[in-house]
Specification:
The structure holds two protein chains of two kinds.
Chain A (H helix, E strand, L loop, with lengths): L1 H18 L3 H21 L3 H23 L14 H18 L11 H4 L2 H12 L4 H9 L1 H22 L9 H9 L1
Helix pairs in contact in A: 1-2, 2-3, 7-8
Chain B lengths: L4 H23 L8 H19 L1 H7 L2 H24 L14 H49 L1
Classes of the chains: A mainly alpha, B mainly alpha.
């Protein structure tokens, strides 16, 4: 029941985001969307994911989005006219994806591949291997440690990319000509 | 915003709590939900709240931009160093068992250390991105100001 309520809220907010022309409103709606997803994850007992979604999705991305909105105009540009081929492609892809969900294994079935592959090992052996109760941390930082290192480097790359795009050495306001010269270098 | 008393008092009360919570989910991540990514973001959020209330310059006095560059590299280096240490001590890359005698303690030590590295990188990168956006804004405002002055 809570699931249905949360999911229908998500759909409503997604439509509201698409329909909103005001970017500030859209950013705020995205924050609400993230918070609702986070609640959904919490309902599904995925505490780590819920915490991440609440902190990253609802918190930091919204702040960064707002910091970015201070740089750009607040209103979205008017769409010139409806793009029917694009709509057709989206509807087609969406219906194919929905059709594919019919082949999903039954939700929560213990015979599912996800329950029978490496999952049981993690569930049963994590405490013997590491002596820590949180399996998510164990998988993230020990069993699948190289993946997590890759994620760390992804974050670092994001920081470097933003620095490369926006980072200009400035303390005192310089004349525009000097700024152009330093950008050319 | 600097003159708004309520905001200042509430922030002064909240910022230490947010930082404490960040440290809690950083170092309690093996027992409860949490870990380096979440903790880093929450810690950066505390810093950003400080920057919003007291201004970016005051915030940059606490964590200078240069420190962010160093720390965001240091974080992933800690992570990679743990992996290399495993190789040097006779295991595979990112194998924590050779690090200490007791395999369980070794695993816990490895997990805590790499999570710390992740936390440092995530928080400083988040701070850096926020700093870049805000500085960009003040830059473009300065350019506009100088242009209007030129016209005058």
């Amino acid at each position: 029941m809570i699931d249905i309520g949360l999911l229908s809220f998500l759909v409503v907010i997604a439509i509201a985001v698409v329909r909103s022309r005001d970017l500030f409103t859209a950013a705020m709606l995205f924050a609400i969307y993230s918070l609702l997803s986070s609640a959904l994850f919490a309902v599904l007992d995925a505490g780590d994911v819920a915490l991440t979604e609440a902190a990253v999705g609802a918190g930091i991305s919204t702040i960064l989005m707002l910091a970015l909105l201070a740089l750009v105009p607040r209103q979205e540009a008017e769409a010139p006219r409806p793009n029917w081929p694009a709509l057709a492609v989206v509807v087609l892809t969406g219906s194919v994806l929905i059709y594919a969900t019919l082949d999903f294994p039954e939700f929560g079935n213990p015979e599912n591949p996800v329950q029978t592959h490496v999952g049981p090992y993690y569930v049963q052996e994590t405490y013997n291997d590491m002596g820590i109760p949180n399996m998510v941390a164990a998988v993230l930082a020990s069993y699948r440690s190289i993946d997590t290192m890759g994620e760390g480097f992804v974050i670092l790359t994001a920081g470097l990319a933003v620095y490369a795009l926006l980072g200009t050495r400035r303390r005192k306001p310089k004349p525009a000509t000097k700024k152009q010269e330093s950008q050319k270098r | 915003m600097r003159n708004n008393g309520i905001l200042r008092i509430v922030a002064r009360f909240l910022i230490p709590l947010i930082m404490l919570f960040a440290l809690y989910i950083q170092f309690h991540g093996e027992y409860s939900p949490g870990g380096g990514f979440q903790a880093g973001v929450v810690f950066a959020a505390a810093w950003i709240l400080f920057a919003l209330i007291y201004g970016l310059d005051a915030a940059l006095d606490i964590v200078p931009e240069r420190a962010m560059y160093v720390l965001m590299l240091l974080g992933v280096l800690i992570y990679a160093a743990v992996g290399v240490a495993g190789v040097v001590l006779g295991g595979n890359f990112l194998d924590y068992r050779p690090l200490l005698d007791d395999p369980q303690y070794a695993q816990q030590f490895g997990i805590v250390t790499v999570e710390l590295g992740i936390g440092i990188t995530v928080s400083t990168v988040t701070m850096l991105i926020f700093t870049m956006f805000v500085q960009r804004r003040s830059q473009s405002m300065q350019i506009e100001d100088s242009q209007t002055e030129d016209k005058d």
